[in-house]
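Table S5 (text form). Sequence records supplied for joint modeling of the two-component complex.
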Amino acid sequence: NAGVTQTPKFQVLKTGQSMTLQCAQDMNHEYMSWYRQDPGMGLRLIHYSVGAGITDQGEVPNGYNVSRSTTEDFPLRLLSAAPSQTSVYFCASSVGGTMYGYTFGSGTRLTVV
Amino acid sequence: GENVEQHPSTLSVQEGDSAVIKCTYSDSASNYFPWYKQELGKRPQLIIDIRSNVGEKKDQRIAVTLNKTAKHFSLHITETQPEDSAVYFCAARSWGNEKLTFGTGTRLTIIP
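The corresponding structure-token record, covering 225 residues in total, follows.
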């Protein structure tokens, strides 16, 4: 199993550009989430999904869109990049049920200039 | 929604001593409490977790305790080693809530 795979690992965007961060898991996990990590602020939830076709907003959803057309994939779209979106982004997945932790991808370091 | 507070934000201990990190949570319905370790430039990795029907859990040098009445849980690392240096995150999840809420992290430094 590859686990949770994120691409790209690094990205530099200009303000106003759009892009998609890719996330795929091969563990047949129902739950998938996107977090952003900023210094001193821990991991904040952007969007999450409890299964194919179902998504919901987390703590900091503004400026981001997600979709979940398959169990394996959960892409995160930045609609119009802003410097405030400079961060490290982690995708994570979990088996169904609330008594399990998440497995994280290796992260994408995004810089918006 | 759930709010998780974590203390201290930084912690330095001599190699061989013990380290304790504490977290409090706000949602009394929370029933799952994992701890993650994140080394510099790496992804967070689950190191231990505890469910609400258990008061304490140990795994070699790592232990977690849970006090449901006071709504706090703690990570204990004994006989610390240099490879324990990392940022540690606590988190909480409640029944029927798919979201995992994290604390703001503790940077643990082991002094040789």
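Note: Chain A touches chain B at residues 31, 33, 35, 40-45, 48, 50, 56, 58-59, 90, 94, 98-107 (CB under 8 Å).
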